[in-house]
Amino acid sequence: TMAEPETSFASRLILASAFGIVGTAVRYGLQNIAVESNVPSLPAMMALIVGCFVMGIVQQLGDAIPSWLSYAIGTGFCGACTTFSSWQASAAIVAIDARETHPPAEQGYGWLTLLLLGGFVSSGAYHAGAKLTRGLFLSEAEGTTIKPITVSKWIVYIFILLAIGIVLLLGLLLDEPVLLYAALLFAPLGVVARACLGARYNTPNRPLGTFLANITGTLLLAVLIVVAKRHPHDAVRGCQIGFTGSLTTVSSFIKELAKLPARTAVVYTIASVGIAQALLIAIVGGDAWS
């Protein structure tokens, strides 16, 4: 029956992990395209847009799709596609600028721009996804509830297996396929860790689990950035991309901000960004300036 898998946390974790592999692959590909295009922007920008846009769609659909599928897409694909730690690291590295290639005022401007850009673009993508879904599935005559959409679990299973297979085959065309495979190997661990923290500590008005996942993942990324400078192995870089990238999430962060009371949302944002920046600047900056 449909009720059994919905009540099994273990089955949800397995499916979310599979979706997380695809989300990580999408993020990896989009970030590589951004880096190779030499367009001056946040490298993870398009990944943030895609992940938060899909999260907005899933949240607006609500009960119209099975809860196990909503969980797998939101926690797995969207959570792994949007990485809080990389967003924060991109800004912190601009602020650190150990080579002193820019005046302090320009560093500060670039740092603030990346922080605001990531936040506002992610929020805009989330609300755009929700708005588009309302426009496509709802009319004034239908009210505010989207009619249930029938989804076969077997079709979802086949689709996700095919998607993972395609990702693995396309990886062979890359210059560094081992790095991608290492990232995909670490990704499910990050998804599971974040999901367990969320299940244990998140409440409707206190997303402590997501906060812990984002801060822990950012701390680990800061350490790995320093380690990678001395030992640039694929395993270290794969852990950066796969584990910390999937442990931390912007899509869930934005979703929670949209639902929290205004004062709580402000405190949550300042605490998350402030602590993340302090950790990155202290660890990565301390190493760069020493």
SSE diagram, text form:
Layout: H1 3-7, H2 9-37, H3 45-61, H4 67-81, H5 84-96, H6 104-137, H7 153-171, H8 177-201, E1 202-203, E2 206-207, H9 208-230, H10 234-247, H11 251-259, H12 262-289
List keywords for this structure.
290 residues; mainly alpha; two-stranded antiparallel ribbon; 12 helices; disordered N terminus
Largest sheet: 2 strands, antiparallel
Our measurement of the CA-to-CA distance between the termini, rounded to an integer number of angstroms, reads 60 Å
Total count of helical runs of at least 4 residues: 12
The radius of gyration over CA amounts to: 19 Å
Order of helices and strands: HHHHHHHHEEHHHH
Low-pLDDT runs = 1-5
C-alpha geometry:
globular
Which oligomeric form is depicted? single chain
Instruction: Kindly report the spatial arrangement of strands forming the biggest sheet.
Output: 1-2
What's the rounded overall pLDDT mean? 89
